[in-house]
Amino acid sequence: QRLPPKATRPLLLKPDGSIDKARYEWFLYLQIPNRLNGQLMLPEVIRYRALEDDLVKPQTWKNQKQVLVEGTQQPKISKDPTRLIPRMADELTLRLHEVSEYLERSDNRDVILRPKGGKHLWRLPTASKKHLVNNPFFQQMRAISVADVLRVVDQDTGFIDDFEHVLGMNSKSRQYEVDLLAILIANATNQGIYGIAQISDRTYDQLSTIQANYLRLETLNAANDRINNATTRLSIFKHYNIQDDSLHASADGQKFEAKRETFRTRYSSKYFGTSKGVSAVSLNANHMAINARVIGANEHESHYIFDLLMNNSTEIIPDMLSTDTHGVNHVNFALLDLFGYRFAPRYARVGKVINELFNITEDENQRVKLSLRKPINTKRIIDHWDTIQRIAVSLAQRKTSQATLVRKLSGYKHNHPLLEALTEYNRLLKAQYL
C-alpha cells in the first residue's frame, strides 16, 4: 500500500480495507510508461534499454580509455579535471562578484533587477523599434520567380548534378532539369507534385517518374551542402555574422501538417487540429539551413540539437548555438561544451530561470550579493570525470543514435548514478552563461 499515492489509494481498496487485486494490477500497468526513465528497462528495445548498454563497454573503456579519448579530437574531453573544474568554478565566483557590483550600482543593463513586494524580479530590457521591418532598399528590387533563382544558383554551383539517378545512370543532356526544378518547388511549398501538375504544363506521371529516380535524402543533402559551401566562399558571407569573432547558429522546430500518415506523424490539436503532422528541426547559420531533421510532433526538440551539430556535413562550423526554451534540457550545456560549442539558449521566462538558480542577499556591509541557491559540487564532477568522458566518447563513436542517447540522458533523473556528475557540470556552465 506504500506505492500508490494517497489520492489513488481509496480507489484500490475494497470496503473491508483489503486491496482490490484486479484494480491494483491495472494500476501497476499504468505505472510502466512513467518508470521507463531509468527505473524500468526493456533490453530488446533500443529506446528503453539501460543507458549502460549504449555506452562504451566497461572492459573496452578500461583497456583503451586513452586511445578512445584522444580519438574524439576534443581538447575539453581530454583535460585534467583537477585543473579544469577549479578554474571554471573560480571564473564563476568572479562573475558573481562582478554582477553583484553591477547590481549595487544599478548598472546591470543586460538583465534588469526590480524589487517588488519583498521579492526580486528579473526581466530583459525592452528593445526599442529602431529599424523598419522592410528596408526601402528592397522595394527597389523587382520580383523574380523562384525557378529563375534556382537556375542562377545552378549556373554558379552546379547543384543539379548532385541529383543522380537511383540506378547510377548519368545523363549529360540534363533533360530532367526543368521537371526537377518543378518538383523541388512543389515539395518546398507543400503543394506536392500532384498540385504542381494541376497548375503547370508538366504531367503528374512525368513528375512522379523524375521524383522517384532523382529525389532522395542523399541527393538533397549533397545539393544543399554544395550550395551552402559555395555561399561561404562569397565575400559577403562574413558580413552576416552577428559577432565578428564567432559564427552564431540557431536551431528551431517548425510544425507541418502531413498530407498522408507516416511512421512519424502525430496528432497535435494545437498545431494541426484533428489532423496529424511532423516537426522539422533546422540548424541555421547566417540565414542558411545547414542541417535539418524531421521528428514527430510529440518529440522534444532538445534531444536533437546535439545530433544536428555533430552530423552537419557542410563546411560551415558554428561556434555558438542558440535555441528557444524547447532546446533546453539538463545535459545540453555540458554536451555541447565538451564538443567545443557554446550553448546560448533564449529562455521564454528568463526571470524564473534566474530565480531558480541564483539568490539575492545582502552582505555584512548591506551591499547586494548574488550567489547560487545551491553551490556547485565540484568534487562530484572531478571524482566522476571518468564517467563524463565515457559518455562523451560514446556519443562521438555513434554506437547508437545520438538523439536516442541524449533522450535518455535528458530523460533520466538528475541523481541517476551515471548522470550526477554530468548534470552538475551542466549546472556550472548554465550558471556561467546566465
Automatic annotation (TrEMBL):
GO molecular function, one term: transposase activity
A GO BP entry: DNA transposition
One Pfam family in the UniProt entry: DDE_Tnp_Tn3
Residue ranges constituting the Tn3 transposase DDE domain according to the UniProt record: 148-434
Top-level lineage group: Bacteria
Name listed for the protein in its UniProt record: Tn3 family transposase
